[in-house]
Amino acid sequence: MEQVYRTSRLIVKYWKNALSHEERKELHQWIAASEENRALFEELSQEPILKKEMGKMEQYHPQQAWQRISGELLVKREVPWVKVILGVILLLLAIILKWWYTHR
């Protein structure tokens, strides 16, 4: 998956004329690696598709996505502890009440 993302970024940078020499070399190697890669590159290079895909990529903000996901992970981690603590308290309360009723 990481390679797919990297190749996508290289193609976008290619059409923005923002590739370094090493990145350009890497992209050309990927294109030359198979006929399927070459056909995909040509298809993605068609202007309507290119504009649509570049618009999608520009809308993606990795930092904001990570903040949203990490916030959700923190909330999910706290919920089970609250339930465990409440369960222990209820169990202790039941034991104390049972003991109190049997020893009166």
Poorly predicted regions are none
Number of helices: 5
Number of structural units classed as domains: 2
Straight-line distance between termini: 68 Å
Q: List how many beta strands DSSP finds.
A: 0
Q: Please write the string of helix (H) and strand (E) elements.
A: HHHHH
Q: What portion of residues belong to β-strands?
A: under 5%
Structural class: mainly alpha
Give the overall shape, derived from the CA principal axes. rod-shaped
Q: How much is the average pLDDT?
A: 81
Oligomeric state of the chains?
single chain
Strand-helix topology:
Blueprint: H1 2-15, H2 21-33, H3 35-44, H4 47-59, H5 62-102
Helix pairs in contact: 1-2, 2-3
In words, what does this structure look like?
The chain crosses the membrane at residues 81-101. Keywords: Membrane, Transmembrane, Transmembrane helix. The protein has helices at 2-15, 21-33, 35-44, 47-59, 62-102. The protein is an all-alpha fold and 104 residues long. It has two domains: 1-60, no CATH class; 70-104. The longest helix is centred in the last third of the chain and has 41 residues, at 62-102. The termini are far apart. The model has no long low-confidence stretch (mean pLDDT 81).
